[in-house]
Amino acid sequence: MTPIESKTKKHSYATAITLAVLLLVVLLTCVPYLISIALAEGLAQNAADASPIFGVTIPPGYKQWELIAPAEEAAPLDELRAVVGNQTAIDAYRAGKLPFPNGTILVKRAWKRKQSPEFASATIPGAATTVQVMVKDSRKYAATGGWGFGRFINGKPVDEAQHRTCFACHDTRAKGHDYVFTRLAP
After folding, report:
1. pLDDT exceeds 70 at position 171
2. What is d(CA 111, CA 167) in angstroms, rounded to the nearest whole number?
3. CB 3.0-4.6 Å disulfide test: which of 31, 95, 178, 185 passes with 69?
């Protein structure tokens, strides 16, 4: 190898190492910044989807959760309802455990009641009306019996005034059952 080739080869290695170091510095500087922006946008989206006061959101996958009990609400609401729960809720119900453990999530789905077009005496779900969520966290929601509440229409939380009524209703009517109305269907 001639001295010129040796010098050129050393220069090429030095350039490659310099570029690799520069690329590494750029990645280490920019990637955390880009990740923080993405996370902030995700949190902002979650905040928009969270209930006022409590910060409760609609849990992903809740439509596949196990049924706790169906219900029917008379006029003026005239609704069919189904309460489902996460595995923590199901286990607590089956064990008869009160108070419910932290991590329990209950979701009430509601639809307008509609007469079946195929069977005159049958009632079927019509248009969806609300999704209501209760989340048990005895520290975070100590002032409301350990429960956080969320009421959603078309996937968006209702206003703060409506959320202020949640605990008062549960406190008055269901305090003896850890503020939960629904009993496990036989």
Report:
1. yes
2. 23
3. 185
Q: Is the CB of residue 131 less than 8 Å from the CB of residue 58? A: yes
Identify the pLDDT of residue 18. Answer: 76
Going by pLDDT thresholds of 50, 70 and 90, the confidence category of residue 35 is: low
CA distances from 84 to 44, 58, 65, 72, 170 (A): 28, 12, 6, 15, 18
H-run or E-run covering 89: helix 87-95
Is residue 105 within 8 A of residue 66, CB to CB? The reply is no
* C-alpha to C-alpha distance for 185 and 67, rounded to whole angstroms: 8
The structure tokens listed for 20 are 């690799």
- Residue 137: Cβ-neighbour burial (10 angstroms; 0-12, 13-18, 19+): middle
Residue whose C-alpha is closest to residue 56's, from 176, 128, 162: 162
